[in-house]
């Protein structure tokens, strides 16, 4: 996998110019190769920058100048009747326009052009058709959808074995339907029954779905932060992984991660959820604190109360008492979400379960020093990931910034 | 269904070109209206936001297009031909006034940057102004490739035809162009990510 670097093809990858097999090879390679990945990040930035340049509108003055220049040219051509002129055509500047106004008027009829009759009706009809063609031509990008069971619908249409989900369209499944969406060339999403999901955007630097209700399972082999799912109360940003995301009728969400990492975000609030962990999210609150699903029942109930039901001090006390070494995932995330005495207590418990590495001080952590929090997280991370995948863990570590 | 639509599109394009070849004014106007903004945008950003130069180039391109449309063979892709004219016009012009224009471009770009940055709170415009001047500093060959890609949305194959080079060369120029932009505008990374 490391043998063949992919740097030469990275722009083509961003522009969707590669065959799916090649695109997938690149996606997988940049996941594990630091060199190619930083190159990819640079090119992705270049692509994003270029999209910031707005298209410009040609000024109205060009057409009259052009007519004048053409008239001048034809006039010259007819005075030079015996010899064709080979002179380069030069543009006419705005200042010249008035001087050539009389020729403009004459030229307007294109009188000296070969075989010119009056403007034909046929040409006008063509004009309208081409106008329509021009505006319709950029096809709305779409993703392929395969029916897995029942009768999934795109918009109001039932799909057959396969369908296309275009940007802006909703895919809906009823009680008995399931479907699979191919996410550009970077992954797959399986859609469970009773789900409503929309393709928001798909471009080489960002793919985005909106999950309004229901359940989806994603398997993504793209580099981090390329695939996003909007839910009513948070955005799930893929960091290279497999996960399940559920949204209920109240807009509350639950994310389970099977491999890799997912970030659940709203505004500045971010929860990093590694494999084996989950995180809830609710309207009004945004993403809650991530937790491992094998934590004790008391721990989970207390955390839910703390995050979403103003459980306050009592709930926090239970969370701290019940926390195992692995639950430092939860405690580390709690640090910036509490303050004063509460933060100090979270720190003490965290330090008790896994002492901070050298250079990370109590004072630093309590004032939320970014560098120190990150350093401690890097250390704690060893406790969060399954022991059995050291190589995978190393790759994910590289990705997690 | 899609195939049929595409075929008739091509048919229509051929019809318009045929009408131009007969000297039909409306057909000329139609071609001009359809493509003018794209030609103008390429020229504008090629010359670092110099509007007068962009207008000149646009006019030059269409003038050449209309005078030579009689020679256009319908089996060749019209857009390829148009963008070849556009890129040649830009590169030729650049060659003619290289020394002078380089100075001028830098000056212009800076002026635009400052003027646009002064409009308070318009971070997006500031970004665009900085991208604009960074594009203007690229080598002409990289610059023209990037502009063709973003303002025409051409495929690599179409770009290769318009630029008269191989697809591999297109890919490598785009690679280099994007990296150069990223290097120059490294500090905008955070800004762009937040915007999304
Ligand atoms: Zn590599």
Question: What do you see in this structure?
Answer:
The complex is a heterodimer of chains A (401) and B (196). Chain A is an alpha+beta fold and 401 residues long. Chain A folds into four domains: 7-49, no CATH class; 66-136, no CATH class; 142-288, Jelly Rolls, CATH 2.60.120; 293-401, no CATH class. Chain A has 13 helices and 16 strands. Chain A has a 16-stranded mixed β-sheet that branches. In chain A, strand 2 and strand 3 (157-158) form a beta hairpin. In chain A, helix 4 (62-79) packs across helix 5. The model of chain B is unreliable at 1-9 and 99-121 (pLDDT under 50). Chains A and B meet through helix 1, helix 3, helix 4 and helix 6 of A and helix 1, helix 2, helix 3, helix 6 and helix 7 of B. The structure holds zinc ion.
Q: What secondary-structure arrangement, pairings included, does this model have?
A:
The complex is a heterodimer of chains A (401) and B (196).
Chain A (H helix, E strand, L loop, with lengths): L9 H5 L5 H13 L1 H17 L11 H18 L21 H7 L13 H16 L5 E8 L3 E2 L2 E2 L3 E5 L3 E3 L5 E6 L3 E5 L4 E8 L2 E15 L6 E4 L4 E13 L5 E14 L2 E6 L2 E6 L3 E2 L3 E2 L4 H12 L3 H11 L5 H7 L5 H14 L8 H5 L3 H15 L5 H10 L2
Parallel strand pairs in A: 9-10
Antiparallel strand pairs in A: 1-4, 1-6, 2-3, 2-5, 5-8, 6-7, 7-9, 8-9, 9-11, 10-11, 11-12, 12-13, 12-14, 14-15, 14-16
Chain B lengths: L1 H20 L3 H22 L4 H18 L9 H19 L1 H21 L4 H14 L3 H13 L3 H8 L3 H18 L4 H7 L1
Helix pairs in contact in B: 1-2, 2-3, 2-4, 2-7, 3-4, 4-7, 4-8, 5-6, 7-9, 8-9
The complex binds zinc ion.
